[in-house]
Amino acid sequence: MNETFEFNARNMATYNEYLTRYDDVESALLPVLHLAQEQNGWLPEHVINYISGLMNIPAIKIKEVISFYDMFYDVPVARNVVHVCTNITCSMFGGREIYQGLLKHFDTGYLTPTRDGRISLQKMECLGACEIAPCMRVNNDFVGNLDLTSAIQKLEELP
Amino acid sequence: MTEKVNLTWNGKAIQAEKGSNLLKAALDNGIEVAHYCYHAGLSVAGVCRMCMVEQDGVPRPFPSCNATCGEGMVVRNDTPKIKSAVETTLQFHLLNHPLDCPVCDQAGECGLQDYYMKHGVYDSQMIDKKVHKEKVQDIGKNVMLDAERCILCSRCTRFTEEVTKTNELGILNRGDHAEITVNEQLKNDYAQNLVDICPVGALTSKDFRFKQRVWFLEEVQTTCIGCETGCAVKVSENKNGAFRVKPIYDHDVNGHWMCDDGRNIYKHVSSPTRLASATENINGLFVPADELAIQATLKGKKAKYILSTGLTVGEYANFFKAIKGSKAEVALYTLPNLGVEFDGLLKRGDKNPNLRGAKAAFEAAGFDHTQAALDKMLGSIASSDAVFVVVPEILYNEDHFNTLIKKVEKAGTRIALTPGETLGTLRSFNYLLPVPSFLEKNGEILNYQGAARTLRAGLSYGETSKDVSYYGKWVNV
Amino acid sequence: MKDVANYKDYALLSYHHIPGVHNLEIFERAGGYEMMKACFLKDPEAIKEEVKNSGLRGRGGAGFPTGVKWGFFSKDRNAKKYLLCNADESEPGTFKDRYLMEKNPHILIEGMIISAWALGTQKGYIYIRGEFYQQAVILERALKEAYAKGYLGKNIMGKGFDFDLYVHRGAGAYICGEETGMISSLEGKKGQPKLKPPFPAIKGYRGLPTMVNNVESLAAVPWIMRMGAAAYKQWGTEKSPGTKLFSISGDVNKPGVIEVPLSTTLKEIIEIHCGGMRNGNALKAVIPGGSSAPVFNAEDSYSVKMDYEDVAAKGSMLGSGAIIVLDETRNMGDVLKWTLEFYHHESCGQCTPCREGTGWLESVFKRRDTGKSQKSDIALLDKTAASMRGQTICALADAAAMPTQGMIKVFREELEQYVTTTGKK
Questions:
Q1: Contacts of B181 in chain A (CB under 8 A)
Q2: Residues of C in contact with A125 (CB under 8 A)
Q3: Under DSSP, is residue B128 helix (H, G, I), strand (E, B) or coil?
Q4: How many Cα atoms sit within 13 Å of B113 on the Cβ side?
Q5: Which among B44, B88, B174 has CB closest to C349?
Q6: Which of A90, A114, B185, B212 would staple A85 via disulfide (CB 3.0–4.6 Å)?
């Protein structure tokens, strides 16, 4: 694979703005990875190498960071990422059954994009919205008080 | 200069530099403290949790590697509390560790084995599935990685980050899925140190792998002759030869490390192609010859000597003492520089192990050690001459040396004294004589700092002479 | 007794009922940023003293007195220092900071400006967990407004004081809520906690003095300054003064965030503020301070006062104030299983006892899935958990061990029964 990546003009401007926020380049790594993932969907080797060159951070350090955080992806993910909470309160109200039910309904596995490339499901620990348990995050938004039917319905609406 | 403080460790009074590392103070004073992640040459990680101590007046146990020495400290790691903590922590270390000691090269010098004998809990309650990771990976530079054996002490990642600054290694993932990973391949020139600092069998040397069990090896402490740095090293050997070279801590010269090139300096010593006895070239066929007979043949010829920079101070002295009063001409062959002058760590481009010793000896004896003097000698070689060439023990650049050999061909009799491999180009010589390698002689060499570095004769080489006056006996022929 | 979760009545949430209070203009109309302006007329040391006198205890979970922590900080106003707001809120069951920030971001910003002035920090970051994307957007917008007003940036209020404040998003790792893990993460590294000493107040972010405080602690600062330490201390107890946000979830009729004085009884919280038990079921147990806190049985739950000392006296901890209510239909084995999976997933992997221990606790407890379990596994679990405590750089190992041991202490028989019945896949 000879894929290339570079920030588009808007994200390059954002990148430069990020650098002004910190007293060293390294500190901007998390925001920069969020930005790159926003543009590319996930963080494959060639994106890592681009950022490594751009920020002068060793590639292995970037790989360490990506592998450490649940929300950075070193595997391809679908255009909609759905976090399903399976921590205590959500599990009390069927969070795990919803996660399993969604996997079955969309015939997929952990993070694996559905065949139409629409949805990646990710089992997550507490999302910090226990008052609306069981809950999930659809892209950047919380959706709560779910059952399997309403969860499927919500996700089927996704583009 | 530095202030000393008195402290007590397990009731033993010890002294240490104020503010120095508490664990190191114990280790330096012969107190045994189990530890995996601490290494004096690296930053403190404090993650293996084996060196925990209790201190009078401090409520909670803490890792001694993250503490500094202060006056009057009273520290113990032999309390029931610490002993039981170390015992269970060791159990945690072993939880996902494979039981492949019988096929592991680290066996015999493994931190896990060592401490298990002392602190082990022998009734394993682990009946659960172990976490599996990648086992045999060639990560480059003759280093093999077994991620399952790794206890994630992070010494290796700290080494590539802090010492070589090449950042090839990292630890990916969280929790018990954490795993040492190489970015592409190792690319630094100090990679074998990774094998040394790995406390378990996760990083092993491809060169040493499966060759020997460590308990069949003995060590001789000597000096690396790979370049003018003169790192302190130990060579592991037995009656079958030498098997590996490891660095010894030397504050003033090499610290904790040595370069990968130095790891190979032993290889010629027990090489099957190494010259074992004096040999005469009879029409291209090299046959064993008697040294005395060779000496007789050379009698009356005008002797010219081209010495290498690899003799010890003592050898030079004996040589010049022996030729004193003779009409012998002497010049010095200096190895050409290779690579950068200094790589910022240990490796130097000047590959002459005892250039300073050679120069001093030449000057003291009134001989010219310069290239010009060598060129002059080479320019005036005649068929009546007997030319002795001491072959450098390690030749990084054979071509350069071969140019010299070509020029020597004009001489009537050509004698090579070689401590190393029998080179193809030596076919043009009339006589080949074995001389001791660095592992077969006692003496001193002067490194780049002009500091005397010790060479020690190995334990098990009887085949060649250890007589430092060896070079001298070819004089006055 | 008040019968609703009490917006307006106390402090932190008293603006939450005002529509649009996340807009600076509306916030100011309600009296916002007044304390900031007033504080700029005060000596920074006096502000620190007031906070110290208030007895405010860190609201992130450890409960260390904020004023004392501030006292460890460098007093050299010219030295480069950082103020870091811990908005990583990821202790399971906790969502109070999210609720506070999303409705009223300016109270946090005001609190941080006052704290920065008191501490002499020139730069600050709000480290917010990655999952709180919209909350980060809300904060960014609020920061923009504050900058436009000249409350942030150079020469604030003409005092010659500079303070820049930014939002920094995490990316999904519980351990970043630990203050040195957060610092590592902010430095662009894995969020692995750092060895202490040195403490962040001395050597923190980028090796420079860094003050890390929880959202709720910082948001309390304007209120402490407004009403004065003495008045603030009228709420709560001597050792647990002030009001506290509680996140309540589980088997209650009205889960959510409430603000009540510390030492309010858990019974009152459940029955009055949360509308009682769901479906009229009987209470079985409560996890009183987030998933790390040892569980209470019904009896202790109904007798405990929610302050640091009483919760501790009954063998648990107030933690982040995350109350998870469990009714009679709940199986404690399930709860422990979910808890153990969580800590296994979140261990950062540095320290051996935690890295290996969290995984093993889960494996041992789930032996029922492979038919290898026996009653004595619970004893092994207890012993293993005990041996993880106090052995690691940060408190995650303890946070996994404490609820395990707590659960065993209170519900041993139920757990023994749980592990010896075959688990469903």
A1: 60, 63
A2: 90, 92, 174, 342, 345-346
A3: coil
A4: 15
A5: B174
A6: A90
Residue B467 vs residue C237, higher pLDDT: C237
- Alpha-carbon gap: B132 to the closest alpha carbon of chain C (Å): 13
Task: Count how many residues are written for chain C.
Answer: 425
Q: Please check whether residue C364 touches B, CB under 8 A.
A: yes
CA B180-B184-B185 angle, 5° bins: 80
Residue A15 has pLDDT above 60, yes or no: yes
State phi, psi for B236 to the nearest 5 degrees: -90, 130
Nearest to B95 among C345, C360, C367 (CB): C360
Closest CA to C350 of C193, C152, C143, C225: C193
Check C349 against B88: CB less than 8 A apart: no
Residues of B engaging C, defined by a Cβ cutoff of 8 Å: 44-49, 52, 60-61, 63, 66, 84-85, 88-89, 91-93, 95-96, 125-129, 131, 151-152, 154, 171, 173-178
Q: Name the β-bridge partners of B219.
A: B236
What sign results for the dihedral spanned by CA atoms B29, B35, B39, B42?
negative
Nearest to A140 among C89, C133, C324 (CB): C133
Number of structural domains, chain B? 3
Report chain B's C-alpha Rg in angstroms.
27
For A149, the domain range is: 80-156
Residue B194 domain-assigned (yes or no)? yes
The CATH homologous superfamily of the domain defined by C24-232: NADH-ubiquinone oxidoreductase 51kDa subunit (3.40.50.11540)
Residues of chain B with pLDDT under 70: 1, 121-123, 209-213, 459-477
Measured in angstroms, the CA of B176 and the nearest CA of chain A are apart by: 12
Q: Whole domain around residue B349: which residue ranges? A: 279-474
State ipTM: 0.97
Cα gap B15→B4, rounded to integer Å: 6
Residue the block writes with tokens 């589980």: C250
C226: CB partners within 8 A, 6+ apart = C34, C35
- Summarize pLDDT for C240-283 with one digit per residue, the tens: 999 999 999 999 999 999 999 999 999 999 999 999 999 999 99
Token output for B205: 């040397």
Q: C94 to chain A: which residues are within 8 Å by CB?
A: 126, 128, 130
